[in-house]
Design a protein that fits this description.
The chain is mainly β. The chain contains one helix and ten strands; from the N terminus they run ββββββββαββ. It has one domain: Jelly Rolls (Sandwich), CATH 2.60.120. It is 3% helix and 44% strand. The radius of gyration is 17 Å and the shape is globular. The N and C termini lie far apart (38 Å).
């Protein structure tokens, strides 16, 4: 365990929307990962977001599309496990850029593990984001 005395004001590097609490997309819903500008950032810069994505166990294929304001990552292959990749974003000096994740995949998976009463029920979900990571390196200036 590492205890960090965070400086104030607190801030986040990235934030998700459209995912379940345990990292699944919902059928027909676009999930988003919002990447914020770094403190003191004066121009738009390139950032790299890495994702590890897995389809539900019963789905025969893993198919998804990840788009940012400057790049696209598409994958469609037999579901053999987790697909790992990255996408570049151009993050403006004030504000944020987003990676949007869509998939036609739907499948059943285990229940929501938030409590005993919901765990025993299967859920219909899209794909699972088992890892989201933003590279520490700040890239070259860019145009969003």
């Amino acid at each position: 365990m590492l205890l960090v005395d965070a400086e104030r004001p607190w801030r986040t590097d990235w934030l998700t929307f459209g995912l379940t609490d345990d990292g699944w997309t919902l059928p027909g819903t676009t999930a988003r990962v919002r990447v914020f500008a770094s403190p003191g950032q004066r121009t738009a810069v390139s950032r790299t977001l890495s994702l590890a994505i897995r389809a539900p166990d019963g789905a025969p294929r893993i198919s998804f599309d990840v788009r940012s304001n400057v790049a696209r990552w598409h994958d469609d292959e037999v579901n053999t496990g987790t697909v790992v990749g990255s996408i570049r974003l151009c993050v403006p000096s004030a504000g944020y850029a987003e990676a949007r994740i869509t998939t036609p995949v739907t499948g059943q998976t285990y229940g929501d593990m938030r409590d005993v009463s919901s765990y025993g029920f299967e859920r219909h979900l899209g794909i699972f984001l088992s890892s989201i990571a933003l590279a520490d390196e700040i890239g070259a200036p860019c145009r969003p």
